[in-house]
Design goal:
210 residues; alpha/beta; 5-stranded mixed β-sheet
Amino acid sequence: MKKLNYLLIILITLLYNSSIYSQTEEVESYYNEICANAEHNGEKTPSRYKKDIKIYQTGDISDELLSELNRIIVELNDLIEDVDVRLVNHIDSSNIYLFFGGGEEFLNSLDEPQRTKDWRSLFIKNNWGCFWILESGTSIISSKVFIDTDRCKQLVRRKHLLREELTQSLGFPNDSYEYEDSIFQQKWTEVTEYSDLDREIIKLHYLSQK
């Protein structure tokens, strides 16, 4: 009887360890798909913010959407080590420019050459939400995020776009067809929460560098 119990313990331990390994493998695989690839540019070196993430939001934002933005920030701060995520009141002290409104308004709000605005307009034309990341090696210097509240009218869709585009601007530039409940799902969804796997790859990407 003791021998049987001992064998059962070994079997349970092996199954448990196998499950942990499988979960770890799944997280690493999804992390590489989302962080080591870009939607339009293929393979890349993962990058992240190494200083506090300071978001300046402007444009046509409702009270409901502002509340959702604050909720996302709280969730990100629970997941991310080393750097703090917060809203700031002045664009000069920010490293993320978050705009709500129409595409033309967004482009006109940017202090950029016309050729750069024309390039951004190619993405805006067919997308209700866009993000752009300025990188230096493995560091993200700044990001721009556009949420189209002119063409996208439903609140749940606006919330989805806000969570997806803002999160991707932190160093998660690729989409995937793999998981239906993921905020990084390539197909259109109305997901407004991070999946368990999303949370794991966000934590992995921003593990303490100390």
